[in-house]
Amino acid sequence: MKHRCRHESLVPRVVLLLALFTASQLSFAGGVNAQDLPAALEADQDAVQNPFARRIPVPDFPAGMQWLNTSKPLTKQDLKGKFVVLDFWTYCCINCIHILPELKKLERAYPNELVVIGVHSAKFEAEKKTKNIEEAILRYEIAHPVINDSEHRVWDMFGVRSWPTVLMIDPEGNAVWGAGGEVEFETLDAVLKAGIPYYAQQGTLDRTPMKFDLLADQQDPTPLRFPGKVLADESSNRLFIADSNHNRIVITSLGGKLIDTIGSGAIGRADGSYDKASFDHPQGMAIKGDTLYVSDTENHLLRKVDLQAKVVSTIAGTGVQRRGAWPGMEGVDLTGELPQRFVDKPLSTAINSPWALWAHEDALYIAMAGPHQIWKMPLDESEIGPYAGNGREDIVDGPLLPPVPYQQGYSSFAQPSGLASDGKWLFVADSEGSSIRAVPIDPKQQVRTVVGTADLPHGRLFEFGDVDGARDEVRLQHCLGVVYHDGKIYVADTYNNKVKVVDAKTGATKTVAGTGGPGLADEPAQFDEPAGIAYANGTLYVADTNNHLIRTIDLATGSVGRLEIGGLTAPPSH
Question: Could you tell me the fold of the domain covering 6-217?
Answer without folding.
Answer: Glutaredoxin (3.40.30)
